[in-house]
Amino acid sequence: MLFFWHAVDYLFVYGTLRRGEGNHPLLTGRTTFAGPASCHGFLYTVEDRYPVLRLDKSGPAVVGELYCPIDAARSQLFANLDRLEGVDEGLYQPEVLEQSSGSWLVYTAGPALVAYCQPENRIVGEDWCRYRIERSRLGQD
């Protein structure tokens, strides 16, 4: 089933879907890398396992990557992503950002994860990969 957010021009990823992260293979062969990108908001950790984003136009830049879905793989790509992100369970919710480059899909905190969007869970610097590497270096993972 296709939803309105499946028709976007780009997919913005900021966590485990980024290059070098565990879920990145879901994008391989289904997207093309468009480049590094950012959007404004706040990034939080969910029990140090994965990040969650709250969009906020007045917030800092959240570090991420932009991907262009391959049309032939679009329906399978978004079905897999919606399942991974727990859209039906309310873990993450799809939001469409209208940018000068086109429309971007970003999965943000859904009702089931919004409780993690608290100051004590904030990822200062809004970069999941840097946060994860730093925690690992310090032996805190």
TrEMBL record:
This is Gamma-glutamylcyclotransferase family protein. GO terms for molecular function: gamma-glutamylaminecyclotransferase activity. The active site is at E85. Transmembrane segments: none annotated. It comes from the Bacteria. It holds the Pfam family GGACT. InterPro entries: AIG2-like_dom, GGACT, GGCT-like, GGCT-like_sf. One of its GO terms (cellular component) is cytosol. Residues 11-129 form the Gamma-glutamylcyclotransferase AIG2-like domain. Belongs to the gamma-glutamylcyclotransferase family.
